[in-house]
Amino acid sequence: MSIDVNGSLAELPTDARVSLLDFLRDHLQLYGSKKGCDQGACGACTVLVDGERILSCLALAVQCEGRKITTVEGLADGNALHALQQAFIDHDGFQCGYCTPGQICSAIGMAKEAKRGVPSYMSADLAADVTLTREELQERMSGNLCRCGAHNGIIDAIRETMAAEMAE
Ligand code: FES
Ligand code: FES
């Protein structure tokens, strides 16, 4: 049983109780994804599974057999940061950085949801194309908490980067 993590195949644990988060951190030594609450409340553990954002503390590693996992470590292209990583730097989107990997993975998954028209609580017309306004982004990223209060910079970074992506 194996999964693809950031382009490399990894053997899944034999213990079916291991969460995806613990597998990434403790078995693969990928420490970017953080364990904040370990109960689905903070978003610090968010990773992408086949491009969709999930809370890795609430998923079992064995559930992901045969799927493609992307963590924050898999976003940069060599020394070239992902555009959203650079935007977080440019917009002061972090202080301690603890929530940042989850914020970035979540934003990438969120943009994909928006692109295919998934509505949010803020969407007035459920059938309309999604425009990533500030209010939409605040709602769609509300599952990712930042104890440092860097939310303004986080939203600015996502808005700049993802708005350009939506226009493609
Ligand atoms: S550690 Fe997974 S949501 Fe907080
Ligand atoms: S930057 Fe510190 S928790 Fe978000």
List the helices and strands and how they pair.
Layout: E1 2-5, E2 8-11, H1 20-27, E3 46-49, E4 52-55, E5 68-70, H2 83-90, H3 100-115, H4 134-140, H5 151-167
Parallel strand pairs: 1-5
Antiparallel strand pairs: 1-2, 3-4, 3-5
Bound molecules: FE2/S2 (inorganic) cluster (2 copies).
Key structural traits:
168 residues, five-stranded mixed β-sheet, 5 strands, 33% helix, binds FE2/S2 (inorganic) cluster
Please summarize what this structure is.
Helices cover 33% and strands 11% of the residues.
Estimate what percentage of residues fall within beta strands: 5-15%
- The number of helical elements comes to 5
Number of strands: 5
| Strands ordered across the widest β-sheet | 2-1-5-3-4
| Poorly predicted regions | none
Overview of the molecule:
- Helix content is 33%, strand content 11%.
- With 168 residues, it is α+β, with helices and mostly antiparallel strands.
- The mean pLDDT is 95.
- One FE2/S2 (inorganic) cluster binds next to loops.
